[in-house]
Write a structure and sequence with these properties.
Helix content: over 70%
Oligomer: single chain
CATH architecture: Up-down Bundle
Number of helices: 15
Number of strands: 0
Largest sheet: none
CATH class: Mainly Alpha
Shape: globular
CATH topology: Na+/H+ antiporter like fold
Mean pLDDT: 79
Strand content: under 5%
Low-confidence stretches: 171-175
Order of helices and strands: HHHHHHHHHHHHHHH
Distance between the termini: 30 Å
Amino acid sequence: MGENVFFQIAVILGLAAAIGGVGIWLKQPLIVSFIAVGILCGPDGLGLVHASPTLDLLADLGIALLLFVVGLKLDLAMIRTMGPVALATGLGQVIFTSVIGFFIALGLGMETVSALYVAVALTFSSTIIIVKLLTDKKEIDSLHGRIAVGFLIVQDIMVVVALILLSSLGGPDSVDTPLWMAMGIILVKGVLFLGVIGVLMKYVLGPMTARMARTPELLVLFSVTWAVLLAEAGYLLGFSHEVGAFLAGVSLASTPFRETIGNRLTSLRDFMLLFFFIQLGGGLELSLLGAQLAPAAILSVFVLVGNPMIVLIIMGLMGYRKRTGFLAGLTVAQISEFSLVLGALGVAVGHLSPDA
């Protein structure tokens, strides 16, 4: 029964709908419900769903679509408009959070590599969630809203750079390669990859999307095809599917149809991500959770209190009012879905054990 993929997907969707409904009634994010479904269906739960290449593929497609849509919504003009405050706050918060988080993780008894991953994971906040919340509250165009979106975009760029470095340096083939040589190879590949994408953006993608836009369904099909093609190109170049998908989104972000594509792909992205979060929940070993409750609580307090305080202090030093700094700081009192992707990539490249 566990090997029947169609049965597994049917069980997953049924439980996801039921538990997701309960989660919404309890005013909990759907991500929490999906992870709970994974735990319930996984080997340590009811044992109804087991690992399969099909489910793994669906999870990988979900991550790729997530990064494609994030790249699609990447507004470089926003970074230029906000200027110094977006860059200073984004970089400053990442640096201070990662350094403090690293020593907290070491103090909790983690190994150096695990502590480094945890520290980096704590630095990133979900741009998608914050943009939605600010939009719903009609604060997206306020001063603190524009600053928050600006430094969250800076964070998005930094996490993609981290994914590139990890996916390129973490494989078994890189063990005997000097670091400077590996970094040089990364740089050359990256420049070539970006150069080809830049040429296509200037001469091909604009006219092509304009022609495809005459039929909205065809535009969506082309967008998904482009995302998958660049995701595979990124993987073949030694980066990752996620990096390629992100750059595919960035390449279409300059077209007039970015909003149309993004709006039409949001539901598909959320549906595919369901399998990633369920896979994540199914991989959790409940027997290990008891020992991790105290460290998780300490790190959660740091994210909820420490991250906003760091942003408040940085913005205060730049001359912004405490209220503006406080409201902008509240947006980083959570961690991003990228943090989960980062951890999964750490396991994939062998830096982390599945039990870490």
